[in-house]
Structures
1.
Amino acid sequence: MDHQENCDFMRECACRQVKIIRKKLMAAKLPEEFSEATIRSFDIEIYDSQVSKERAATAKRIATNFIKKFDLMQEQGKGLYLYSQTKGSGKTRLAASILNALLKVHDKPDKPLTMYYSSTADLLAEIKKTFNPDSQTKMSDVIDSIKNVAVLVLDDIGVEKVGEWVEETFTRILDYRLQNHKVTIFTSNLEINELDEKYPQGRISSRIEKMTFPVQMPEEKIRSKLAQKENENLLDLLLE
């Protein structure tokens, strides 16, 4: 094989790999908005205050090492709990970046890594769809798939409307994942101990405390800054 053929072969392999990853991200239900998110591109400098920059830097370092030591994390069934009171502070973006990195680094043909991403509100809506008499899917099938996936990202836990059924459903899912050392990554506007205000029986917070390492994110909104930055880049393209 000459140099040109080798380059073409490498490009073809890289392209095929990108398509495989994209297909798996779609299967994992990761929003298209975050399909290209990476830990490396998680921008610490976009935050204004020094405290925010330091928290972002720490969170980024933890995320990087989480990927490097994922085999150990899996063995211990340890995930991450990314929290800050401020909406749009980068929690979801970092969680998605971790999911992307895990897929690229740890998903192997002989050892596939199953993943699933969902906001808690969307997950509950998906489960409730099975209550429809015309549904072809049983509630137990949805819950079992969530219970058994190797890596689960639950976004925005604590914002959903909570009743006895909701708390019981999440308890079933988390209890199984805790006992079977499944990795779960959460994002929330609440600290773990504040979850008791939403889940009064206290069973959710106690399980999350055992199955995750808490990571405090900056108390600074960056979503609008990212949108502005994207628009500036788009303007440059349109004015070429």
2.
Amino acid sequence: MSAAEPLPVLDAAAVARAAAALGLAPTPAQCERLAAFGQLLLRWNRTYNLTSIRDPSQVLTHHLADCLAAAPPLRRWLDVRGEQEPVRLLDVGSGGGLPGVVWAVMRPALQVVCVDTVGKKAAFVQQVAAELRLPNLRGVHARVEALDGRFDVVACRAFATLADFAALTRERVAAGGVWLALKGRRPDDEIAALPPDIDVFHVEPLAVPGLDAERCLVWMRPRHTGAG
């Protein structure tokens, strides 16, 4: 792109193009919601430090598309699981609602809880849920260790090492549930440092449109070591 060309606009059409590059086909309403989320992130960022990214084009690539890239693998896992009851997902250290808000928009049947220790970030997610009319999304101001209940998916993005993430959230993983960690390059050192009762059963490379950087998705689950 030359200096004379305008930066890409963060609108529903731009979101749709990024989603299409990932093999996704969100509805027009979903594209509008994701674009509106990006705009809310930019607006709140003028007052609150939700993210270091302030360029609309980078919000599209580094945040929205980055989280959308993990949507197809998550969809496959949910489809294979095939349960009729709503699936509960916990986004730990969610910050400005990434990836939780994006996944709540893309998968309305998901019940998404975004938890963060910073009150203004949890309040932002609550505001997003209200403005975008997402009844399946909730922001919670708390430490994850203080939460009650268990979740089918416990996810994070740039939150902690895999060992710390698992240790902090072990009691939040439901029977048959998984951890889902969005990472940059494949974290082999972190995987090697995990205790033996954590099973890394898949590390999935992700290609993010418009982003020249390594990304992967680390799938983990508790390993049951009882007899049999």
